Amino acid sequence: MRIRSLGVIDDAxxxxxxxxxxxxxxxxxxxxxxxxxxxxxxxxxxxxxxxRIGAKSAVVEGRIAVGPAAPAAVRAEEAxxxxxxxxLLISRTVSAEGRSRAHVGGRSVPVGLLGExxxxxxxxxxxxxxxxxxxxxxxxQALDRYAGDAVSVPLAEYTTAYRRLRAVxxxxxxxxxxxxxxxxxxxLLRFGLEEIAAAEPQPGExxxxxxxxxxxxxxxxxxxxxxxxxxxxxxxxxxxxxxDAATLVAGAHRALDAVRSHDPALSALTERLGEIGxxxxxxxxxxxxxxxxxxxxxxxxxxxxxxxxxLTQLTRKYGEDIAAVLAxxxxxxxxxxxxxxxxxRIGELTAERDELRAELGRLAQALTDARxxxxxxxxxxxxxxxxxxxxxxxxxxxxxxxTETADEHDGIEVGGRTVxxxxxxxxxxxxxxxxxPGTPPRPIAKGASGGELSRVMLAVExxxxxxxxxxxxxxxxxxxxxxxxxxxxxxRRLARLARSAQVVVVTHLPQVAAxxxxxxxxxxxxxxxxxxxxxTVLEGEERxxxxxxxxxxxxxxxxxRAHAEELLETARAGR
Length: 575
What we know:
Elements: E1 2-6, E2 9-13, E3 20-24, H1 31-41, E4 57-65, H2 71-78, E5 87-95, E6 100-104, E7 107-109, H3 111-121, E8 122-126, H4 127-133, H5 136-147, H6 149-177, H7 179-199, H8 205-217, H9 219-234, H10 245-257, H11 264-293, H12 298-318, H13 322-340, H14 342-388, E9 395-401, E10 411-414, E11 417-420, E12 428-434, E13 442-443, H15 444-447, H16 450-467, E14 472-476, H17 484-497, E15 502-506, H18 510-513, E16 518-522, E17 535-538, H19 541-552, H20 558-574
Parallel strand pairs: 3-15, 3-16, 8-14, 14-15
Antiparallel strand pairs: 1-2, 1-4, 4-5, 5-6, 6-7, 9-12, 10-11, 12-13, 16-17
Helix pairs in contact: 2-3, 5-14, 6-14, 7-12, 7-13, 8-12, 9-11, 10-11, 12-13, 14-16, 19-20
């Protein structure tokens, strides 16, 4: 892993080996930046404050060995990434302005993809995880994860039914609490539909009536104009001296017709005059029919205006024209049918809600049975691990309870009792610890010291490693509060975990660091930065000096050196 311009790190390379790697150094030297860097590679939150002062961006690059059939490799290739001889290249860039970019296998990808890959690649645990383990929800998740399919299968069914119940309850609540508003809406719709039905508007009727009203209102003027136009075209029988257009055109046609045979051009004009005469005769006939058929009927005009007024009342309320009014009526009828069916719908939803509550009760009981079956095995496994971590008399147990409720609407029936429930069932899961013989089991939040809590968490993780392994485990000072013999046992257990996985531990305990297959030292230069040479692999004498510093704060103390060499020998023998 290469880290540039991140926190106190200027430019450093961290080489993590297979097995157990311990990262050590003075307080404030930048050990935690190793954890932060790996967190960024795994899709963690990009905080611009992490960018080194004066730098434009921080960059973390990592090479992760994965098998071609590993889930992370398959998911990366689906995103377009390419593997380089079984190695997945990942980089994350964080700018000082807060922008973040991610690349996997040479392809730019969303940061969210890194988080998906992380689930199959690395399990990261720090001191904050100890606090997380104190939460009942986290303890339930731990038990469920250990139980595997025995819990995950009924939990998936339960979750589906729970979400449906939430949706049904919300719709039922909306129907019942808004009954008055819906009744008022139904009354308004019913009134509007009755008003429209009484008027019986027809599609396009408003347009047709407008045209008819315009015609009837100007009937006399239209008739007079038509008669005058007819006389101009065909003549007036009462005025024998008047000259009309038809007579003139006919005369012009006769004049040309006599000589048309002498010139084709004139013949064409003669044809056109003939066509004009025919067209004028047709128009004159239609004008006569129009004038004869035009009726200035005041009663019809009054009826038309009255009908238009009735339609205007509708368009003023329900739409800009009759087409819109009819569309409103169609939609209103559908909505009214829906509102009128609310009572039936309420009955259907109530029945479905009751069925879902019964189903959830059955599934919750299945979840409780599965958790109780796994709880004893889980507790025994963690207890066995604690014995390996210098807590031979400690006993871990799991308490599973439900909270009864008097309100049947807030609960489901499980085991003949009405209990509260949530998205993960009705169970409340709590880890109990009895650290010494004769002491009653108490919740780990109350019964465990800081060092004991560190070892409980480590024991839980080791148990998980057997049932749901990931290739790499990263522990950030989870040995806080541990010392002496217990620290030696923590180191021994981490070394054993490293037999089946890569384990990286940021630690301040020499007893833990001594068990590492490789020890990395993070140290600052005189200007307060960590350069490429600031992360070094310690071997031989250098490792003895660092363990001496961690033991006594003095690299050259003969007593500390002897103790350091003894620790290394003990670790070699105890792996």
